[in-house]
Specification:
The chain is an all-beta fold. It is built from no helices and 16 strands.
Length: 176
């Protein structure tokens, strides 16, 4: 289960694991440099009922993508936390599997991480946000950790008044 806890303590379930998308998430999630959370499950996955665990990503809105299922030769039962290297890749370990059956150290390359430039300029009693790629949606949150929500009529340039004391913005691709 992946869940979100609000600042007032309310718990919202985001994702349940049902075998095909993995089972038994043991390690904590990490926040990737692209604003998406990554984690592992130590069992099942695409190869169920034998599955050896998965690596997944989950957005703050609960969209789960299982993008790697271990097959035994590349490892079995990841249980430690992932790390993201300066190269953008995810690194981790498995308890079992690999050439000698005693576990592996793995690297999953996520592809190039191209930052999406979000330009913010101050103007009088407002801030003006601009970006060049219309595929991305502007999202806002009252806190750095969210929850982020889409701003439905936000097109570049977008002007936001200082009515809110603190506001955090990010761009999110339509596919996330």
């Amino acid at each position: 289960m992946v869940f979100r806890v609000s600042t007032n303590g309310a718990i919202t379930d985001l994702v349940s694991f049902a075998g095909g998308n993995g089972a038994y998430p043991i390690a904590a999630l990490i926040l990737g440099s692209n604003g998406v959370f990554y984690g592992t499950t130590s069992g099942l996955g695409f190869n169920e009922p034998v599955g050896n665990g998965t690596v997944f990503r989950v957005t703050t809105n609960g969209v789960l993508t299982t993008f790697w299922a271990f097959n035994g030769t590349d490892g079995t039962a990841p249980s430690g936390p992932l790390l993201q290297g300066n190269d953008g890749a995810l690194y981790g370990t498995t308890q079992y599997g690999g050439a000698l059956g005693s576990g592996t150290v793995f690297k999953l390359f996520l592809g190039p991480i191209n930052p999406i430039p979000l330009n913010i300029q101050m103007a009088a009693n407002s801030r003006v946000l601009t970006w060049t790629n219309p595929v991305f949606h502007l999202q806002a949150a009252p806190a750095l950790i969210g929850p982020f929500t889409n701003l439905p009529d936000a097109y570049s340039p977008y002007t936001n008044s200082f009515a809110n004391r603190a506001m955090f913005f990010r761009l999110q691709s339509a596919s996330d």
